[in-house]
Amino acid sequence: MATTDNDEDDYMSDAFLNTETVKDVRPGLLMTHEQQRLHNQMKKRKECQLINKTTGLKALEEQQRQEGLEKAIDSTNKGFSLLQKMGYKPGSGIGKNNSGRVEPIGIVLKTDRKGLGREAALREIREMKKSMIRNRRSAGPSVCEYRERRAQEAAEKLDRLDLFRCQRVCRQMDLEQDIQEPSEKFFWPEEVPEVDADESEEEELNITSLNEQLEILNFYLRRTYNYCVHCGTVYEDESDLMEECPGPNRQDH
């Protein structure tokens, strides 16, 4: 069947699809590259104008604020007129005896989101730290602490000498009894440690302090050989040691 001019095209035909593609006139659609370039230029120009406008307003506000701060208030100000009625004179201090503040409190413009008391707290903390450092540097050891430390060092030196004497005597007496190895490593004078030394014995040696080693070795010499390192004497027997020796410690002698 033939078609007439008034008949509509079939929506499935190529003619219909080509017509719809050419007639794409959606709002805001930029058809050419030139239109896209002009649109981007106009967009950037509006953004710059907005920034300049905002910056200009801030600068104007700052200028007006500064002019207001530099300009002295006059009688047209209600607060100033009330002060004048109470006897205030320009240039003099406020208060009954004119001993108060002459200049008004300055304005500090806050532009960040930090707490109002944060800066003051940080300033106080810095002063606290400086004060702590000064006190720590100036406060040396007390007289009592110094004396106690020196007495402890002297006592440790004497214990070291007594321990060395006990070690030499113990080695001599053990060898006389055909004892070829000490019962404890610290019973004899210290020698160069071997590479394959037993770690358990080293740990045990580190556990006992100098004073404890001296106490143990002194007990061994007194009970085994009836010897007192402080007296420097080998007694006949245990009874003779108990009667003649003042005691096992240096303080007893």
From TrEMBL:
GO cellular component, one term: kinetochore
Domain annotation G-patch: ranges: 75-121
Highest taxon of source: Eukaryota
InterPro entries tied to this protein: DUF4187 (IPR025239), G_patch_dom (IPR000467), GPATCH11 (IPR039249)
Any one GO MF annotation of this record: nucleic acid binding
PANTHER family named among the record's database cross-references: G PATCH DOMAIN-CONTAINING PROTEIN 11
Family (UniProt): Belongs to the GPATCH11 family.
Protein name as it appears in the record: G patch domain-containing protein 11
Gene: ACYPI003347
